[in-house]
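User: My instructor asked us to take a sequence, write out its structure as tokens, and then describe one feature of it. I'm not sure where to start. Here is the sequence I was given:
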Amino acid sequence: MNNAILKELKLGYGKLVAFSVISMILVLITSLLLIGQGSVRHVPITYKEVIKATVAFKNIDGDIKIVGLVGNTGINPTLISRTGDTEYSLTVINQDKQPHMFYIDGLNVHTKLLRFGENDTITIQPKNEATYHYYDRVPILKNNDLSQPIGEFKTLKVAGD
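Assistant: Let's start with the prediction itself. The structure tokens for your sequence are:
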């Protein structure tokens, strides 16, 4: 830096360095405060919670079962989601030779008619805590009978929702 400028401002090198360091610290703190309060974001920094699961229709010993593949395991698993802004994304695969349609009673959501090897994804955004039953809708359409649910879909309220 030119000595003439320092003499005119009556600053020494030490004072200039101290002033520069303090200024940079203040700029950093101000930037962090503005960014931390969301003043400079054009999108939220939190993402909507998405629960992903995959199940499949299978014929096991002559009975149609739902088998958990991803996110759930076992036969005819209880599917669990939380209420609020949570999205439950369920992929259903037909691994049986007969066509099937996954249906959740009370939420009135269902897959398309699935032929062997096909899959469909349904998205559920439960708002209330409840227990629903899921069915294979194809026999229901044929017999108009909701008496035999395959399993349960539960929505639970979690603290903070």
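For the description part of your assignment, you could build on this observation: The domain at 50-156 is CATH 2.60.40.420 (Immunoglobulin-like). Try explaining in your own words what that tells you about the chain.
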